[in-house]
Design brief:
single chain, 368 residues, alpha+beta, Phosphorylase Kinase, domain 1, Aminoglycoside 3'-phosphotransferase, Chain: A, domain 2, 2 domains, 6-stranded antiparallel beta sheet, 11 strands
Length: 368
Amino acid sequence: MGRQAGVHMHDAACQFDNDALFGAATTRLNVQEACALAAEAFGVEGRTSPLNSERDQNFRVDANDGTSYVLKISHPAEDPNVTDFQTQVQLCLMKAPGGLPVPHLLPDRAGNYVHWHRAPGAGRRQAVRLNTFLPGVPLHTVERTRAQRRALGSTLGHFDRALAGFTHSEANHPLLWDMQRLAQLRPLMRHIDDEARRRLAGRALDRFELRTAPRVAGLRRQVIHNDLNAHNVLVDAANPDNVAGILDFGDMVEAPLVNDVAVAAAYQLADAPNPLAPALELVAAYHAVNPLTEAEQRVLPDLIVARLLVTVLITGWRAKQHPGNSAYILRNNALSWQGLERFGALTEGETQDMVFNALKPSNGSAYE
């Protein structure tokens, strides 16, 4: 997510200064080097093991004293100002009244929350941060339940309330996954091989440009998580209905607040004639904590479609650019196409009525 040799395309995605985060090769630390870095920079000695990551490097560090941490090594193409933005967001969330299930940053030996590291023979330096390790299991590995969706919606509502009023000079930095910039991804449609799917995506994109974007323009804005998918949520292993952690602040950006709800809802859809039914349980719980205005409710279904479209466009393109990592890149692709096809069979009025009915005060579900 800057332009870089290794992204051989003239797509609109190249307009984003942070494309290099996806397209560029970089020096990768091995387990031994990460272990040495944790000890040298943070004074944490123990056993290190790699964790999955899309553009950065993450390692679990099991210290000799029994404490576990996550060592996060940012891609060297990441703008240091964006690194500071993400760091300040996390520090703000750590101070939220009542507490939030987010990892806590720990300072390095010099007292800094960001440690700058340059590997021997490497070009740019990399930001290194040490986080507390949150126990739990990834949401995508457990069975989904109504109580779980409500817990997730409520947690996201408190998360967004904690960030209300937070400002930073890089809050509006260009981000490939920002729905506000969806129209710029149109050239990526040529990477969709199936003609019927390409037509479906084209109709959805046309609708976003002509109808959705103008309706979103005047809605309230703030910094949002912007990527609450099932791979970024931990639940309690003993009780998967409880949210144990919200992870990954790499896609945070200032945007319409309702975008955060739409992103989360896009990963809670059903493969059924009414795909919104389970997602609206999350939305209702969010609404009980951080109420949505009528205008936000009205545009929510179209924003869910927009997130599905962003997902299929970016992941389809990137899987071709990085075939060796395609399984990880495409982890949400099939479900997103499924959602687009289901929404394509519904009218705007039908989806809006579903949202309004789910959030009616008389319903009770939004105000329990």
